[in-house]
Amino acid sequence: MNNRKYLFLAIILIVGMVSIAAASAADTPASDVVTTDDTQDLNLEENIQDDISTNNDNGELILGEGTSTNDGDDKEITSENKKEDTVKASVKPKAKKAIEKESTKSKKSSKTTFKTIGKNSKNKATVKKIQKALKKNGYYLRYKGHYLKVDGWYGPCTVRSVKAFQKAKKLKVTGKVDENTAEKLKIIDKTNAKIKFENDKTFTREYNSGKSFDVKIVNKTNGKGIETILRVDYYKNGKRIDEEFYYTNEEGINYITPDYLKPGTYKAKVSCEEPNIKVEPKYKTIIIKKTSIILKAKDISSSGNENIELKANLKFKNNKKVNEGKVKFTVDGKFYTVNVKDGVATKTIKVKNLKSNKYQVAFLGTKNIKSKSATGKIA
User: Fold this and answer.
1) How far apart are CA 339 and CA 137, in angstroms?
2) Which helix (H) or strand (E) holds 157?
3) Residues in the chain where the model's pLDDT stays below 50
4) What pLDDT does 172 receive?
5) Whole-angstrom Cα distance, residue 96 to residue 305?
6) Whole-number pLDDT of residue 322
7) What is the pLDDT of residues 275-325, one digit of tens each?
């Protein structure tokens, strides 16, 4: 009886121990359990453990550093976080830096180089290019009785033509020319250009003479002129004092006329205002001198006892009227000084028994203009 009792207890104890062992095995992760048939398998596991990570709880394969798949039979990782971690883990430090560098380079190269052009744009040169391209592509459309003209004005006809072009090319229909539309119109031209001066590097002229120097911008590859916007910055003693903008014609030419510059020595920096045209600025020395004028005194008829008007006309050699400085009239030893306004200086005086039949006119000169004298008759 006692023997049977002990045997029963022993069986219960053995069953309990087996249950505990099974539960312990179930709690242990599959990746921590390595079953081998022989020593060779253990060595193989040691050699490749850096390249292959463990399976996750769902049985999906996660690649470690340096591991790649040979075919498309491997299961796709469903967890976005696990995908991200896997990709990061599979990129070695040097390769990661190279990818980041390439990504930054790609972002820089994708930067927009064409500024969107729309209705009433002041960029006439680019608008003309757009209009020419539209006309060339057959989008010479009519709006309220008017046809599209190549005039640099982004008006209703241009807007209508651009919209038609965008619709036909399956672009976003806005009526504005953005970079995508410009590319389809083939007006984006990252041109390597150069600026040429037709005469010497030093340009000497008189103040307000109307003389100019030629500037030409051409394509380096084919030598053809470029219709664009030139910018001219003027420097004196190293300080920028002003700027001007000029539209070149179809031959790439315009004439720079710095009429308002006062006497002195300047440096003119000529560059291109359009960002899609690559060109090195060019410099020219400009020397402005005092200018001479044409001065004429009006002949006067007088009996010698009434009031008379002394008058002088003043103009530059290019026929522009002088609008600065003073004139001194001298009659019978008396003088009268008046300001010049709109090319004229006048003075009404009372006279009695004039001794001379002439009067003198003297332009007193300014910082910009040389002095000048003339004689008027009194008959």
Assistant:
1) 60
2) helix 156-168
3) 23-112
4) 93
5) 103
6) 96
7) 778 899 999 999 999 999 999 999 988 766 678 899 999 999 999 999 999
Averaged pLDDT score across all residues of the chain = 76
255 bridge partner residues: 214
Specify whether the CB–CB gap between 286 and 258 falls below 8 A.
yes
Task: Check if the beta carbon of residue 266 is closer than 8 Å to that of residue 288.
Answer: yes
Contact 291, 206 (CB under 8 A): yes
Distance CA(216)–CA(227), nearest Å, equals: 10
In 3-state terms the chain splits into helix, strand, coil percentages (rounded to 5) of 25, 30, 40
Nearest to 270 by CA among 367, 197, 165: 197
What is the 8-class DSSP label of residue 8? Answer: H
Tokens representing 204? 């000497």
- Cα 283 from Cα 231, distance rounded (Å): 12
Q: Do the beta carbons of residue 266 and residue 183 sit within 8 Å?
A: no
Tens of pLDDT along 104-152? 443 443 344 678 999 989 888 889 989 989 988 888 666 666 777 888 9
Length of the chain in terms of residues written: 379
Q: Which structure tokens are listed for 41?
A: 């398998």
Name the phi and psi angles at 244, rounded to 5.
Answer: -135, 160
CA distances to 101, 103, 113, 180, 183 from 108, rounded to whole Å, are 11, 9, 11, 17, 18
pLDDT of residue 186: 82
Give the distance, in angstroms, between the CA of residue 69 and the centroid of all CA atoms in the same chain. Answer: 48
